[in-house]
């Protein structure tokens, strides 16, 4: 038995099911192939499996983590914070999924990255004085299910803390955020009272906002709010993750009236005791009357623990004393990891032995807790995982980070287009035929030539469609790519791939991050064949499509024995070779996507410069070899980039395309205010919604760009494109959406060209008078 001082717990677990049960159930329900009751049944079976897996692993406390789509959307619903445009819809799935995906006449809630992860949450929209109409029945029913499965002494509810919820929200400028927190508190007090009545052992209050560098500004809100919440009398566990807590925040955090505080010990390496959080506790201590939630098993890394967790626990016990209550847990919710490494049958054995997915992390948590209790833990296979400094430029000439000509000089040499040029971001629908062909090829049912032939047919269809729609710069549609990172990783040495390593990105969208398992190099051309196929069937310039080095790294599971910057520069050099080959094939427009640039940004602003320095240099290293005549495009999406605009400008891309449709031109306004001077393509419609945008809607959206003042309204430098790639949509949605987009651009283009024609006519009317002096001026000019 584990001693009363050392126990084990979870703070979150994958919600997708061992075999992606939730994805299949959601998509079946959305397509009308199953009922709401069917969806509820699968969801409850999926959560039951997850909860029992944690209990069976030997965890003392199990957090009740499950959702139909997104945990923040759940709390928007629980609190009744439904935006007015959705209030006419029937409460329940109709309203819930409308907020997530949009419906005709009501665009979806904005979607942003959750702190520094690739998980996307739905952004709450709060009024200055929100009318909170809480209905906690869904949460309470989940808790009762958890108690029935696990026992009332094991099942622990999770609440997204009120201060974090407000910090993630959008609300009118000038609104007092503290007042918003205050408006939510009565509802939180209510639910805590009802949870107390259910006999829960504690309630986890997730407040990751405390990991931000600005958390000290929230002291008054936390002290006031948690004083009220503590008054209910149910034990509270304040849970913080994704980074360490600043010392000045820690000093008041540990005085809050909560029974437990859970901290992340794995986010930031430190000089003392191996991590920054342990160093803070070593200096400042920890209150004896509170339980310490020690997040010492890395919840965001797929590598097995190297013994660090056991050493950390021993150091904590030595520093805090044998009577200090400590609960061993993961550093962050395990939803960022694949489910079970035992499902992987084709990875090299020596690699598999080094891996620990979510289920294996449970084993590590329990084993570490037993080591702290004096009970000999089960043997754990370990993997050496030092934390090196972020360096990696050695051997790379400084000139390789810069284009041969500056933007103002090279841009006129690049392809020129009519006003409001149209394009797409990259991918087109991954149809059933494409998936079937890929599976048949993978299983050896069809040959390489047969597979390439089918991919060629898909590319020809995509190009023909875009020609017919009159899209200025077509894309080949990426039918050969199952994923924008996986595709390139498969063609690079140094990457390894799982078959079942799925991780939720948002809703039913899961990704399968590859593993950086060695030094990354390019084996040969990766995209040239498909580019040539596409360009051969159109006279329009086809965009080459690459995934940038920072996104390749941030959407992979990186090595822990080599600095991230080293890995990024290795990838960048491989992409630089690919750029050269694309140019050799005649490509003059290349898009290098970096949607995950912001994702790797540390939560503490004082660490930004170091990260952005090497991240921007990695991007520049990948593209700077391009000729001046080659137009380099990059794409950013689903994050707030307003506070790193200098870094975006420093990337030196010729065209920037951005996700924009859900955010009311926020990024466009920020770029305009900053004087951004390069071509821009703000997304005109939401690719994550099944709603087909009307021509009128798109015309209004395009007109709104001019009102921001971006580029002085220069229509030849404002691109018209969707928010993001279209692989998750159906052709039945993509075709009319693109057709309407092109028609909207044509309407605005006609207005611009009409105005230009009037100007030219005015000049022509004045021309005869000017020509009276023409020969004399011309002669003078010759001399």
UniProtKB/TrEMBL annotation:
* Pathway(s) served: Amino-acid biosynthesis; L-methionine biosynthesis via de novo pathway; L-methionine from L-homocysteine (MetE route): step 1/1
Domain Cobalamin-independent methionine synthase MetE C-terminal/archaeal span(s) in chain numbering? 420-746
In this chain, Zn(2+) is annotated as bound at 635, 637, 659, 724
Q: What are the entry keywords?
A: Amino-acid biosynthesis, Metal-binding, Methionine biosynthesis, Methyltransferase, Transferase, Zinc
Q: Which cofactor does it need?
A: Zn(2+)
Q: Which one GO biological process term can you cite for this protein?
A: methylation
Q: Which InterPro entries does this chain map to?
A: Cbl-indep_Met_Synth_N, Cobalamin-indep_Met_synthase, Met_Synth_C/arc, UROD/MetE-like_sf
**Which residues are listed for L-methionine binding in this entry?**
425-427, 478, 593
- What family is it from? Belongs to the vitamin-B12 independent methionine synthase family.
What this protein is reported to do is described as: Catalyzes the transfer of a methyl group from 5-methyltetrahydrofolate to homocysteine resulting in methionine formation.
Listed name of the protein: 5-methyltetrahydropteroyltriglutamate--homocysteine S-methyltransferase
The protein's organism comes out as Auxenochlorella protothecoides (Green microalga)
């Amino acid at each position: 038995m584990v001693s009363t001082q050392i126990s084990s717990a979870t703070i979150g677990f994958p919600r997708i099911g061992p075999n992606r049960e939730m994805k299949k159930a959601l998509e079946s329900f959305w397509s009308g192939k199953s009922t709401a009751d069917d969806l509820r049944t699968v969801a409850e079976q999926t959560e039951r499996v997850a909860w029992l897996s944690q209990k069976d692993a030997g965890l003392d406390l199990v957090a009740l983590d499950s959702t139909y789509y997104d945990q923040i959307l759940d709390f928007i619903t629980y609190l009744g914070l439904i935006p007015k445009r959705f209030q006419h819809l029937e409460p329940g799935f109709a309203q819930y999924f409308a907020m997530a995906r949009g419906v005709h006449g009501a665009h979806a809630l904005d979607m942003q990255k959750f702190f520094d992860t690739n998980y996307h949450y739905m952004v709450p929209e709060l009024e200055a004085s929100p009318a909170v109409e809480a209905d906690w029945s869904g949460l309470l029913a989940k808790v009762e299910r958890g108690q029935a499965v696990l026992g009332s002494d094991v099942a622990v509810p999770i609440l997204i803390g009120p201060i974090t919820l407000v910090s993630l929200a959008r609300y009118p400028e000038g609104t007092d955020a503290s007042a918003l927190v205050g408006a939510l508190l009565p509802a939180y007090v209510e639910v805590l009272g009802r949870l107390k009545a259910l006999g829960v052992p504690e309630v986890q209050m997730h407040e990751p906002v405390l990991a931000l560098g600005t958390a000290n500004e929230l002291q008054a809100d936390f002290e006031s709010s948690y004083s009220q919440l503590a008054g209910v009398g149910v034990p509270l566990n304040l849970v913080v993750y994704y980074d360490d807590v600043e010392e000045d925040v820690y000093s008041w955090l540990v005085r809050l009236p909560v029974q437990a505080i859970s901290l992340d010990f794995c986010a930031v390496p430190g000089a003392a005791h191996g991590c920054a959080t342990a160093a803070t506790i070593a200096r400042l201590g920890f209150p004896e009357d509170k339980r310490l939630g020690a997040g010492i098993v890395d919840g965001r890394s797929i590598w097995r623990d190297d013994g660090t967790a056991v050493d950390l626990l021993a150091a904590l016990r030595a520093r805090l004393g044998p009577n200090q209550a400590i609960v061993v847990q993961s550093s962050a919710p395990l939803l960022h990891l694949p489910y079970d490494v035992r499902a992987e049958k084709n990875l090299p054995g020596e690699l598999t032995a080094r891996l620990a997915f979510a289920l294996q992390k449970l084993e590590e948590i329990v084993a570490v807790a037993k080591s702290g209790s004096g009970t000999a833990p089960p043997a754990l296979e370990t993997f050496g995982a030092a934390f090196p400094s972020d360096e990696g430029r050695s051997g790379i000439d400084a000139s390789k980070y810069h284009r041969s000509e500056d933007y103002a000089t090279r841009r006129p040499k690049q392809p020129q287009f009519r006003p409001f040029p149209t394009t797409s971001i990259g991918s087109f629908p991954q149809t059933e035929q494409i998936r079937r062909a890929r599976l048949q090829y993978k299983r050896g049912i069809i040959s390489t030539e047969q597979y390439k032939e089918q991919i060629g047919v898909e590319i020809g269809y995509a190009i023909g469609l875009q020609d017919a729609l009159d899209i200025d710069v077509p894309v080949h549609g990426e039918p050969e790519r199952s994923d924008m990172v996986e595709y390139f990783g498969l063609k690079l040495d140094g990457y390894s791939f799982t078959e079942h390593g799925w991780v939720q990105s948002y809703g039913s969208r899961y990704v399968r991050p590859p593993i950086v398992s060695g030094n990354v190099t390019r084996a040969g051309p990766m995209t040239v064949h498909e580019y040539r196929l596409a360009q051969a069937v159109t006279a329009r310039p086809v965009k080459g499509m690459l995934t940038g080095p920072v996104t390749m790294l941030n959407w992979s599971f990186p090595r822990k024995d080599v600095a991230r910057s080293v890995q990024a520069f290795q990838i960048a050099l491989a992409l630089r070779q690919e750029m050269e080959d694309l140019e050799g094939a005649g490509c003059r427009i290349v898009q290098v996507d970096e949607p995950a640039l912001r994702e790797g940004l540390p939560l503490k602003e004082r660490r930004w410069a170091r990260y952005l320095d090497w991240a921007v240099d990695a991007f520049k290293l990948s593209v700077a070899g391009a000729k001046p005549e080659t137009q380099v495009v990059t794409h950013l999406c689903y994050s707030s980039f307003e506070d790193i605009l200098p870094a975006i400008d420093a990337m030196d891309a010729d065209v920037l395309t951005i996700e924009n449709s859900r955010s009311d031109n926020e990024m466009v306004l920020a770029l305009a205010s900053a004087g951004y001077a390069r071509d821009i393509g703000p997304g005109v419609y939401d690719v994550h919604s099944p709603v087909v945008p009307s021509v009128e809607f798109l015309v209004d959206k395009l007109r709104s760009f001019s009102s921001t003042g971006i580029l002085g309204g220069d229509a030849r430098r404002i691109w018209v494109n969707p928010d993001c790639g279209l692989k998750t949509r159906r052709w039945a949605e993509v075709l009319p959406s693109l057709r309407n987009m092109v028609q909207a651009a044509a309407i605005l283009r006609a207005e611009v060209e009409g105005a230009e024609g009037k100007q030219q006519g005015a000049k022509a009317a004045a021309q005869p008078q000017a020509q009276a002096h023409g020969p004399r001026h011309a002669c003078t000019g010759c001399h």
